[in-house]
Amino acid sequence: MKVYRRLLSFARPSRWFVIPFSIFTILTVIFSIFQFALIIPLLNVLFNTSPESDSLTAPAFSLSTSFLRDAFYYQVYRLKAMNPVYALYFITFIIVCAVLLTNLFRYLAQRTLIRARTLLVKRIREALFEKINHLHMGFFTKEHKGDLISRMNSDVFEIEGVFANSLEVLFKEPSMVIGYFVTLFAISPQLTLFTLIIIPLSAIGIATVQKKLKRDAKDAQASIARLLTIMDETLTGMRIIRAFNATGFTLKKFSRENDFYRRASLQGFKRREMAPAFSEAAGVMVVAGILLYGGSLILKNGQGAAGIQASAFIAFIAIFSQVLRPAKAMVIAGANIQRGRGAGERILEILDKPVEIQDKPDAVVLTRFEESIEFRNVDFAYNDTPVLKDISFAIQKGKTVALIGHSGVGKSTIADLIPRFYDVKDGAVLVDGVDVRDYTMESLRKVMSFVTQEIFLFNDTIYNNITLGRPDATEEEVMAAAKIANAHDFILQTENGYHTLVGDRGIRLSGGQRQRLCIARAVLKDPSILILDEATSALDTESERMVQDALGKLMKGRTTLVIAHRLSTIKEADEIIVLHDGRIIERGHHNELIEIDDGVYKKLTEMQQTA
Fold it and tell me: What's the pLDDT score for residue 409?
C-alpha cells in the first residue's frame, strides 16, 4: 500500500474530504442497517407476535441507543394495541425515511469523494508533466515517447479508476461490514460466531487469486506503452513506410504487440473476475450454513432456540445477505488495487527520477549578456561514451564562430552545453566569466534563441507559433519579425493569414516556410546570443536562399554560434573551428584555413566545390 499512500498524498490536505466523507459514510451505514433492523418489528406486527412486557411501558429518557430502541418499540406496540394497521403504517413510514436518508448520505459521501478524486488526478497529471519538463535532455534519448504518453494517460486513467471505484469501497464497505456484524452479534452471538469461523476460509482463496494480478497489470501497461510507440512512429513515418513498401512489416509488428496485450489483459480479466465469483459462491455457502444451523435449532428446540425469535432469525439472514454485497465489493476493489498498483509504480518511476540539471540554491540572474562565451577545457560524455575532449575556445560579443566536422564529432553537443541542456563532465562553460551552472536556467536561456535543423512547430496558429518566446508581443512586433524572416508575404497568402493553423508539426507548410517561421520566432525574442544548428541543411536551393537571407538579418549585431555542413554559409564567420573525434584540430578564418596543406577544412571545401 506504500504506492497508494504516496499517490494519495496528492489529494492533500485530506482533512477537507476525509472528515465529511467519514461522517456521511457513518450516517449511511447507520440508516442502512436501521432499515433492515426494522424487519423484526414489521414481522412481529404482521404475524401478531406477542410483545415483550417492557415494550408496553414508556422508557425513561436517556442519551443511549437502548432508549431509542425502547421508545420505538413502545410506539409500535402502542399503535398495534390501538389498531395493527396503524403500526404497519408507522413502520413502513420509518422504513421509507431510513431508505431516503441512506441514499441522501450515500450521495453526499460520493460527491465528497469525487471532489477528492478529481483533485488527485489533476495533481498527479500536473506533477508528471512538470517532472518530464524538468528532466535533462539525456532522459529523452533513452525513453520511448509512446511509453511516456502511456504513463501520462493510460496509467493515470488506471489510477483514476482505482480511486473512483476502489477507495470508496475501502472507506465505506468496511464500515458497512463492521456495522452489520455488530447488529448480527446483537441479534445472535451464537450464529454470528458461526459465520466468523467460515468466512476466513474463503478469504484465503481470494488472496491467492489476487497475488498474480499485479504482474498481469504491469505486463498489460508496458504493452500498451509499446503499442503507443508503434502508432506514433507509424503516423510520423508514414511517407517512409509506404516508400519502402514496409506497410506489411509495420502491420505485423503492431499485430504481434496487440496480441501480446490481448493475452496479458485476458489473463488479468480472468483472474480478476475469479475473485468476486469465488467470494459470492463462498457467501452463498455461508448463508446456506446459517439456514441449516439456525433453522435446525429452531425446528428442534422451538421458536426461542439459541435466544433468537423466528422474526429475528429472518432479520439475521436478511442482514447477513447484505454483508455479501460490501464483501464482494471489497474483493473487487482488492483486485482493482492490484491492477492499479502496477500503473502507480510506473507513475512513481517518473516522479522519482532525479532532476540532474537544476538551479543552485544561490544561482544568480543573468540580466544581460556583456562580454563573451567561453569553453574552458570542456570534457563531456553521454553515459560512458566520450564525446568532447579538452575543448577550449571563446566567442566574443558580436562575433560569429562556426563549428564544422563530420557527423557525430560533437558540434550539436557544444551548442547544447551553452543553455545547459546538458552539464559538462569536466571543465566549464562560462558566460561573461561566470560558470553557466551559477546562473538560473531561465535567465540564461532568456538571452538566447535557437534555429535548428529539426524544425518544430506546434499544431496551432502561425501567430501563436511565432510568439512562443514572447506571448505578450504586439501584432505589430510579430509582423515586423515575420518581415525580417522573409515570412510576411507567404503568411498573408495563407487561408487566415497569421491566424492560419499550421497542422501537426507544421505539415501544411513547406520546409522553407516552416524554417522561416522558426527564424521569425527567434527574431521576435530579440536574443543577445544566437545558436544556429544546421538551419538550412534540409532545404532546397530556393528556400535556402530565402532562409539564408533571413538568417543574415537575424545575425546582425548578435553573438552567434553556427553549425553547418555547407561551408559556403560560414565563409564570413569570425572564426571557424574544425572538430574531429571530439577534439579541436583546426581553427581560424576561412582564408587562413584553406592555406593549410592537407588540412581537414581545405579538403572539405574542395569536396563541396567539386560535388
Answer: 87
Q: Are strands 529-533 and 559-563 parallel, antiparallel or unpaired?
A: parallel
Contact status, residue 18 vs residue 115, Cβ threshold 8 Å: no
SS3 content of the chain, % helix, strand, coil (to 5): 65, 10, 25
* Domain map (residue ranges) of the chain: 2-351, 372-610
Q: How far apart are CA 268 and CA 220, in angstroms?
A: 8
Q: Which helix (H) or strand (E) holds 561?
A: strand 559-563
* CA gap 197, 290 in Å, rounded: 12
All three cell numbers of 59, joined, read: 422508557
The answer to pTM > 0.70 is: no
The hierarchical CATH code for the domain 372-610 is 3.40.50.300
Neighbour-count burial for 354-369, b at 16+ CB within 10 Å, e otherwise = eeebebeeebeebeeb
Nearest in space to 535 (alpha carbons), one of 563, 504, 510, 567? 563
Predicted confidence (pLDDT) at residue 173 exceeds the cutoff of 80: no
Facing residues of 563 across strands? Answer: 403, 533
Strands 448-452 and 529-533: parallel
Whether pLDDT at 567 is above 90:
no
* Stronger pLDDT, 573 or 5, i.e. the higher one: 573
* Residue that the C-alpha cell 483533485 belongs to: 119
Q: Which of 426, 419, 423 is nearest to 440 (CA)?
A: 419
What is the distance between the alpha carbons of residues 419 and 528, in angstroms, rounded to a whole number?
Answer: 13
CATH T-level assignment (fold) for domain 2-351:
ABC transporter transmembrane region fold (1.20.1560)
